[in-house]
What does this fold into?
Amino acid sequence: MTRVPEEVRCLLMRGGTSKGAYFLADDLPAEPALRDALLLRVMGSPDDRQIDGLGGAHPLTSKVAVVSASADPRADVDYLFLQVVVDRPEVSDRQNCGNILAGIGPFAVERGLVPVGEESTSVRIRMVNTGDYATATFPTPGGRVDYTGDAEISGVPGTAAPVVIEFPAGAGKLLPTGNVRDVIDGVPVTCVDNGMPTVLIAAASLKVTGYETPKDLEEDLALADRLRGIRLAAGRLMGLGDVSDTTVPKLTLLAPPRDGGAVTTRTFIPVRCHTSIGVLGAASVAVGLRIDGAVGAELAAIDPGSDRVRIEHPTGFLDIESSLGTTPDGLPSARRTAVVRTARKIFDGTVFPRSAETAPIPPQPQGGHR
It folds into this structure.
């Protein structure tokens, strides 16, 4: 019988605009059910305040990264992202997280999984959830990770060292439904997947401006009902099946830019409105806006001579570099996607999970990784 540890080595990090607990895979039980039950105890779920664990009472601060050396010749490390639900005994592996991804390279260096460069280090990462790849490059002067720097990202106070993350073109379909536009419940949408399954919706088509605060949007019950129906239908159209118990696809409402960017966004994850926007969701938005006829393309202010797209969100902006190509059969495809994020080590030590006797047992996972 597998022994579940009573204490676990853990590195708490901010990655982008999220915060999560980073673990070596070898420090956790290999069986998903035992691992997930342990992580619920570590994070303090289910509880709206997560008062008895590391979680911060919000999806953006209730995240976990599980990292190991990779056997894939195209990668140095494997990264499994787990979303620990705040108020239910659930742990989901149905999506990636591009913000937590920003901390994977530094974590790999901190744990000795990769050789470190004298000035900078590049780490090739396989994202286990989807099988996609990314390369993170960050400063390591003198052979140590330097978290200080002058890179600034919206939604995070102060500055830090830049982490440049580049994504190769994915092998999957950029337009999972095969259409540039679909209509769901009378609402035109574009379903796009450039690392994160995302549904683009013009805010005006749902009778909102797209400039509302996340709190105001979350309190609009009629809007929540419309979004729920659209998400369920889009999940089926995108080949994701029944998404009622998952956090993908994301829904992003689009409006004309107000602060010099390309477009204004409000993203749902899936019912909470994101206080910023996820990296991979923004990557899908950026390339989607470049597709002729896509929802939002007519709203966006994009410089055709530049790869950079500035995505406005509730707390600022996120710059994505993307370019669009075509497949041999003439369909649009993403050629290049890159983003600058930051990460910071908050603490490195041992976490003590709450007692197993007082913790709910999570449901058994359905299916495997996406």
Notes: The longest strand covers residues 332-351. The CA atoms of residues 15 and 105 lie 11 Å apart.
